[in-house]
Design brief:
Strand order of the largest sheet: 5-2-6
Number of helices: 5
Distance between the termini: 51 Å
Largest sheet: 3 strands, antiparallel
Shape: rod-shaped
Helix content: 40-55%
CATH class of the largest domain: Mainly Alpha
Number of domains: 2
Length: 185
């Protein structure tokens, strides 16, 4: 990106304010902002003037406003989307932020849905856990209303994650493998 000016920074701010979606900004935008701020700061150190000091403060405020607005839009988009960023105008730094937020939102949704026994994260799929039965166990009805068992002591089995974790927590089984990738029912 060529050198950024205060006027160009204000134009970018105006576009971000006017639109509810992220606006395209030049690659290397944030590095250019840092360069502009450093240049103004050096200019103030060498020859202080009230006009230059005001412009320096304005640059800081405009840069912060652009960053805050873009972060808000990124967070909202990450909450609404399934993680895809194809149509979003992100810088490299923002793409990383978007991925982290999308992952956190997705994990939170899965946890909440699991907690309330609601819908699974992906239709028709569930996570499977491998466990070893420590005590004989008669048939039981799982949280998904399916019947499981009976199981014998020492038996290695695979169950949906919720049911397996319940047995492990009650000391009836021990986990012998991790949670497998989502497997179709």
């Amino acid at each position: 990106m060529e050198e950024l000016s205060y006027d160009e920074l204000r134009k970018i701010q105006a576009r971000e304010r006017a639109s509810p979606v992220l606006q395209s900004i030049p690659e290397g935008f944030y590095a250019s902002v840092v360069k502009l701020i450093s240049k103004k700061n050096e200019g103030l150190k060498s020859s202080f003037s009230l006009t230059e000091a005001r412009e320096y403060e304005s640059i800081l405020k405009v840069a912060e406003d652009i960053h805050e607005r873009r972060m808000q839009k990124i967070v909202l988009r990450a909450m609404k989307s399934g993680g895809g960023q194809e149509e979003i105008a992100l810088t490299g730094e923002e793409a990383e932020l978007f991925e982290k937020i999308s992952k956190a939102v997705s994990e939170d949704r899965e946890g909440f849905n699991g907690m309330i026994g609601g819908k699974e994260s992906k239709a028709g799929e569930e996570r499977i856990k491998r466990i070893k039965i420590l005590k004989n166990l008669p048939k039981f009805v799982g949280t998904d209303l399916k019947v499981y068992g009976p199981f014998k002591e020492g038996e290695m089995i695979e169950l949906p994650e919720k049911e397996a974790q319940l047995l492990v927590n009650r000391g009836i089984a021990e986990q012998i493998g991790g949670v497998s990738n989502e497997v179709s029912k």
